[in-house]
Write a structure and sequence with these properties.
Layout (H helix, E strand, L loop, with lengths): L6 H36 L7 H25 L4 H42 L1
Helix pairs in contact: 1-2, 2-3
Length: about 120
């Protein structure tokens, strides 16, 4: 008797290694993106304002949510899992969008009010 692995075990191991490599590459790309984004945002006219901080945090959260979604999706075992993961992600994105729209509106109003108050003095 030989200890040869069957085709399914080989495929599973290969898929796992490939997924781990892609996850590592994606994480490296995300870290580079966030570094670039932070440098870019610090050069904006709203450098140290609440608005700038919120925008940077939102971009980070969006990318993290998308990465987590893809990871969960890759672990789906059947179509029902895919539908549940997709539905959960879309609902979360809608809730997040509504919350952020209000927060951004408030931050923009505060930032522009602060700018106008400084210029009228």
């Amino acid at each position: 008797m030989t200890n040869d692995k069957g085709p399914l075990e080989i495929l599973t191991a290969t898929t796992k290694r490939t997924s781990e490599r892609i996850a590592n590459q994606t994480q490296g790309a995300m870290e580079s993106y966030f570094g670039w984004l932070q440098k870019t945002m610090s050069a904006s006219p709203w450098d140290s304002t609440d608005l700038n901080t919120k925008l940077l945090n939102y971009a980070t959260e969006n990318a993290t949510a998308a990465f987590t979604f893809v990871q969960k999706l890759s672990q789906a075992k059947n179509l029902q899992d895919v539908v549940e993961i997709q539905t959960e992600f879309v609902q979360m994105q809608i809730e997040t969008f509504n919350k952020r729209a209000k927060e951004l509106g408030d931050a923009v109003a505060a930032t522009t009010k602060g700018r106008f108050d400084k210029s009228s003095n």
